[in-house]
Every structure is written in structure tokens, then in C-alpha cells.
Amino acid sequence: MHNQFQVIQRDWLEAVEAIGNTSIDLMYVDPPFNTGQTQTAGAGSYEDAWESTDDWLAWFRQRLEATLPKLKPTASILIHTDWRTSHRVRVLLDELLGEDHFVNHLIWRYGLGGSSPRRFARKHDDILFYAIDPESYYFDPPMVPATSNRMKGQLKKATDVLDVPSINNMASERVGYPTQKPLALLQLLIGACCPPGGTVLDPCCGSGTTLVAARQLGRIPIGADQNPDAIHITRERLKKAPSPSG
């Protein structure tokens, strides 16, 4: 089972049609943020612009509604977004799932990026954590190094502020695809929110970091992206990513 993975070259909406109902333990999605630009890097690019935030939200709602039946009753949802739409996504999730299905508003504090003379520097993304059933979702609290002198050298449970560095330009995991997220971040999230042997879905998989992390942790990855460059990179990374069983 650990050696299974599925990578689909289709738009999110079309890809979920091929997935069985109530089969997914965790959906993590890092969708386009509607930056108004084409996101470009050495290994690929994708369009990231809608006419308005309302148009982006309609696009997102349609895909989310199509995916919810694919999730198990015990499943969790992680939506990775930023200041542009996090408030709108949270209201949407409250509407579709119920306010009591909210678990956490996680902050990924990455530290890199520019500053501005007109506002506080934007140095984080938002990850919204919801459960299909707030009484029965899986959670294994991740442990991180303690920073206080009293607990020096020990581990403590992670807070809702995740200090995981961005991928630097010389990192061996960098594949040259735009907006690639750190493997350490996805390992932390998947380890915490998906049971061992469970199935992880990333319907906007980009460079495949979610799928690689899932495979390394003994979960079954399913990913989709409409970009052929993304699919090629993802498949190559998965071939090189051993599962715990080898």
C-alpha cells in the first residue's frame, strides 16, 4: 500500500471525478492566490489572475463543493492561502461545513520577502484547518524544539504559528517550480493531520511537495494539476522518494 500513488493531469474539478466517494483522509490544497500575475520560475509557470476576488472565490467554491463528497467522515481539510483571500475562504468553509468544524487558523511564518515603507512587512501565509466531523478527526500533535532556557534541548507541542523556513536558493529540494513549499512544512502537517496509511489528496499539486511528503511518511498520495510541467516534476520526484517500506 505504501508504494501506491496517483498523479492526474487535469484541472482540480475534473480530477476529483475519478476519485471514489469517502476515500480521502486529508485534503491539503495550495491553490493559486489570485496575485494578478503569472507565477514563473525556471521549471514552469502558471496563470494566477482572476477578474476579481469574487470570481476567484466562485472558482474555489465550485471545486471545494465537488471535493467534499470524496472525503471520509473522519477527514480533515487544510487550505493554504494568504492575506488576499484567507478571510473569504474561512467564511466559505463556515458556510459549507459549519462554524463548529473549524479547528485552527495556522500561521506559516517563513521570514523571507521584501518590506514596505507603507505597511508592516508581510512574512506569513495562512493555513485553515477544518474537520468533516469535529468529534472524530485524526490529530497527532507535532513536536518541535523548545526555545526557552528552561526546556532547552527538549521538545514541545507545536503552536498554531509554524516556524518553518522558506526554501533557500541553494537547497537540494528546490526544483525550480514557482511557489514551491518546503518539504518540512508538509511533513509536519501531514504527520499531524493524516493517520498512518491514510490517503492524502492535493488537487493543485504543483511541484508535488505534498505527495512526496505523504509518500515518505507512509501515506498514500493522490495529486492533480492541469500543468504538464507540474505533473512531470511531481512524477519524477515521487520516483525518487522512498516510502518507509522502501
Q: What's this model, at a glance?
A:
This protein is α/β, with parallel strands linked by helices.
Give the topology.
Layout: E1 6-8, H1 12-15, E2 24-29, E3 37-41, E4 44-48, H2 53-67, E5 71-81, H3 86-97, E6 102-109, E7 124-131, E8 143-145, E9 155-157, E10 161-163, H4 183-193, E11 199-202, H5 209-216, E12 220-224, H6 228-240
Parallel strand pairs: 1-12, 2-5, 2-11, 6-10, 11-12
Antiparallel strand pairs: 3-4, 5-7, 6-7, 8-9
Helices, by number, come to 6
Would you tell me the structural class of the helices and strands?
A: alpha/beta
Indicate the CATH topology.
Rossmann fold
Number of strands: 12
What is Rg? 17 Å
**Distance separating the two termini:** 11 Å
Structure write-up:
With 246 residues, this protein is an alpha/beta fold. It has a single domain, classed as Rossmann fold, CATH 3.40.50. It contains six helices and twelve strands. An eight-stranded mixed β-sheet has the order 1-12-11-2-5-7-6-10, with helices on both faces. Helix 4 crosses helix 5. The longest helix is centred in the first third of the chain and has 15 residues. The radius of gyration is 17 Å and the shape is globular. The protein starts with 5 loop residues before the first strand and ends in a 6-residue tail after the last helix.
